[in-house]
Automatic annotation (TrEMBL):
Keyword 4Fe-4S assigned: yes
Domain IspG C-terminal: 69-155
A Pfam short name: GcpE_C
Identification of the protein by name: 4-hydroxy-3-methylbut-2-en-1-yl diphosphate synthase
SUPFAM superfamilies: Nitrite and sulphite reductase 4Fe-4S domain-like
Organism: marine sediment metagenome
Cofactor(s) needed for function: [4Fe-4S] cluster
Length: 158
C-alpha cells in the first residue's frame, strides 16, 4: 500500500473490556507488520486511550517508553497486599518516560526469575523483601519498608 494504514477498533467499549478488544484487534495486525498508525477508542477519558495505545506498542516491542511493571498474579505464598503495592507503584511511575522494566513479586520463589530480566525488582518473603537491581540482589529489607526502598532505588534509576 502506498499510503499510511490506520488501525482502530471503534466499538471497543469501557476501559477494561475495550482495552482487551483493542489489544487483540490492533495487536494481531501490528504483529504481522500491518498498520502505520493506531487509535484506541474507549468509553471514558481520552488519556486512557493514549495509555492503552502505548501499552499495546510496548507489549509488541514497537515502541518502548515508560515503566513496564511485571507483577505476579499472587498465590498461596503471597503474604502481602500485592495489588495495593502494585497500584502505588503504578501511580508513582505514571509520568516516567524512561524505558524501564520493574518486577514486583509476591514471593521469593518466582521473584528472582522475574527480577533477573528487570531493571529493578522486589520479591517479598515471610519477613523480608529482596530488592533487585539488574537481576542481582542489592539488599534485603524488612517488609514494612520494602516499598519505600523500591521507590528510593527507582528514583536513582530515573
Amino acid at each position: 500500500v502506498d499510503y499510511p494504514l490506520h488501525l482502530g477498533v471503534t466499538e471497543a467499549g469501557p476501559r477494561f473490556r475495550g482495552g482487551i478488544k483493542s489489544s487483540v484487534g490492533i495487536g494481531i495486525l501490528l504483529s504481522k507488520g500491518i498498520g502505520d498508525t493506531i487509535r484506541v477508542s474507549l468509553t471514558g477519558k481520552s488519556i486512557d486511550e493514549v495509555k492503552a495505545a502505548y501499552i499495546i506498542l510496548n507489549s509488541l516491542g514497537l515502541r518502548r517508553v515508560g515503566v513496564d511493571i511485571i507483577s505476579c498474579p499472587t498465590c498461596g505464598r503471597t503474604t502481602d497486599d500485592l495489588k495495593q503495592i502494585v497500584d502505588e507503584i503504578e501511580k508513582l511511575t505514571a509520568g516516567i518516560k524512561k524505558n524501564l522494566k520493574l518486577a514486583v513479586m509476591g514471593c521469593i520463589v518466582n521473584g528472582p526469575g522475574e527480577a533477573k530480566d528487570a531493571d529493578l525488582g522486589i520479591a517479598f518473603g515471610k519477613e523480608k523483601a529482596a530488592v533487585f537491581l539488574k537481576g542481582r540482589v542489592i539488599k534485603r529489607v524488612d517488609k514494612n519498608i520494602a516499598s519505600k526502598e523500591l521507590k528510593k532505588e527507582l528514583e536513582r534509576l530515573v
